[in-house]
Write a structure and sequence with these properties.
The chain is mainly alpha-helical and about 200 residues long. Helix content is about 80%, strand content about 0%. The chain has helices at about 1-30, 35, 40-65, 65-75, 75-80, 90-105, 110-130, 140-150, 165-200.
Length: about 200
């Protein structure tokens, strides 16, 4: 019985780890809403985000053979559900979600890990650029477009930071973009070499 519960728990964790990590990434702009745009609906977003994390976590806890031990070992998820929505604690919730993203990255495969890193970097830097340079980036969409273009090293130049703070935000994107694409290229080359070697052995 315990083995069956453990198997179902592991299966659920495998299925939800990457989607929940990506959800956590795109939750960051929602939690930073009051700093990014004039939005009176941020409390509703907070409840929606809290509901998704809570349901997923409760499903995992319900399958755990030793729930008390599971709660202790997954304290980040406990914090994610327990931290209240008050605006002064909003940045604390962002910090907890960042920890949750770190856990998800640690459990991901190599290529998945780099894609999660890239997505996190783009979203976080876009939010930072929107906050420090609202004149250059009037909407979060503009900031995300700039972040993705900068990371890809395409550099259209249609939007670019004008202040020192904005340029500092661009530095991690420049370095991170080169790193991410370099690692992805290396991984793809490794997969192709491995497949060719297996094909030769099977001949």
């Amino acid at each position: 019985m315990l083995t069956n519960r453990e198997d179902r728990l592991k299966r659920l964790e495998r299925l939800t780890e990457t989607p929940m990590t990506l959800f956590a990434i795109f939750t960051i702009p929602l939690l930073l809403g009051p700093y990014l745009w004039d939005d009176e609906l941020h409390l509703g977003w907070d409840f929606a985000v809290w509901g998704v994390f809570s349901l997923e976590f409760l499903a995992r806890v319900s399958l755990a053979p030793d729930r008390r031990s599971y709660l202790r070992s997954h304290w980040i998820d406990v914090l994610l559900v327990a931290v209240p929505f008050f605006r002064p604690l909003r940045l604390l919730r962002v910090a907890v979600i960042a920890l949750r993203i770190g856990v998800g990255v640690g459990h991901a495969l190599s290529i998945e890990r780099m894609l999660i890193y890239a997505t996190t970097l783009a979203v976080v830097c876009a939010c930072a650029a929107r906050i420090v340079e609202p004149q250059t980036f009037p909407t979060l969409t503009d900031a995300l477009w700039w972040a993705l273009v900068t990371m890809s090293t395409v550099g259209y130049g249609d939007i670019s930071p004008a202040t020192d703070a904005g340029k500092l935000v661009a530095v991690p994107l420049l370095v991170g973009g080169i790193t991410v694409f370099g690692v992805l290229t290396a991984n793809l080359a490794s997969v192709m070499v491995r497949e060719q070697a297996e094909a030769r052995r099977s001949e």
